[in-house]
Amino acid sequence: NTADTGGEFLTFDGVAKYMHLSRMSVQKLLTYDSSFPKGFPILSGERKTKKIWKKQDVADWIVSQTEKSES
After folding, report:
1. pLDDT per position in the chain (71 positions), as tens?
2. Strand partners, 41
3. Which of 18, 35, 52, 54 is spaced 20 to 30 Å from 5 by Cα?
4. What is the C-alpha to C-alpha distance for residues 64 and 25, in angstroms, rounded to an integer?
């Protein structure tokens, strides 16, 4: 995965790389975990919408999951 994770925003591939997960695992989070950040649509096409995520939102979600597991 060559996605850039250095900026303030992440693409779908960037989210996967940032979290050290496969694309399929990120898709499962989006589908089945309502607490996972949904991202922001930036381009709409005929078949799908291109989204980006704030890296801080993803980082905050990871921290919230860590806190849940420690409770």
Report:
1. 778 899 999 999 999 999 999 999 999 999 999 999 999 999 888 888 889 999 999 999 999 998 887 76
2. 51
3. 35
4. 18
| Residues sharing a CB contact under 8 Å with residue 20, sequence separation 6 or more, in sequence order | none
H-helix or E-strand containing 43?
Answer: strand 40-44
3-state secondary structure of 1: coil
Q: Rounded to the nearest 5 degrees, what angle is found at the Cα of 36, between the Cα atoms of 2 and 43? A: 55
Alpha helices in 1-71 (DSSP H): 12-19, 23-32, 55-70
Residues 6+ apart with CB under 8 A from 16: 1, 3, 22, 23, 25, 26
